[in-house]
Amino acid sequence: MTAPETxxxxxxxxxxxxxxxxxxxxxxxxISPERRGxxxxxxxxxxxxxxxxxxxxLIHIDMAGFGDVEAGGVHLHHYVWGILLLAGVGxxxxxxxxARARAWMGLAYGVGLxxxxxxxxxxxxxxxxxxxxxxxxxxxxxxxxxAVAGSVLAVTGGRRSxxxxxxxx
Length: 169
Hints:
mainly alpha; two-stranded antiparallel ribbon; disordered C terminus
């Protein structure tokens, strides 16, 4: 005879806090909690990369209301914010986290990585080549990351199932 399960406290892999359903359950129905962070990292990367390209283009064409971020007269490239975000996610990942926290960290990881990869050409050449021909390295790298990560996510599945994850019974 087995002892009945007691619903005391959800463990680190619980989907939600008591009384507050996770927004990720509605957004990604059927995606396992272990996989949600990876899917959100991919989405965060793709959307941030596209958004940053649009924002920097609007700054480049002098669209009213958009401008560079500066501190003490020095332009702060967006890879700086990406590195800070990646450092924060890295530090937070050292602790055991709930499924909800892992999902948010996955999203933050994708955003931070996109901010860095979008300026990879600048980091490689150590010159501001964002709008030059050499800046295409960043675009090619980002498209490669989106394609490879999306392909891996598609090929490896990840839907919840009633029994085993893959293959047989």
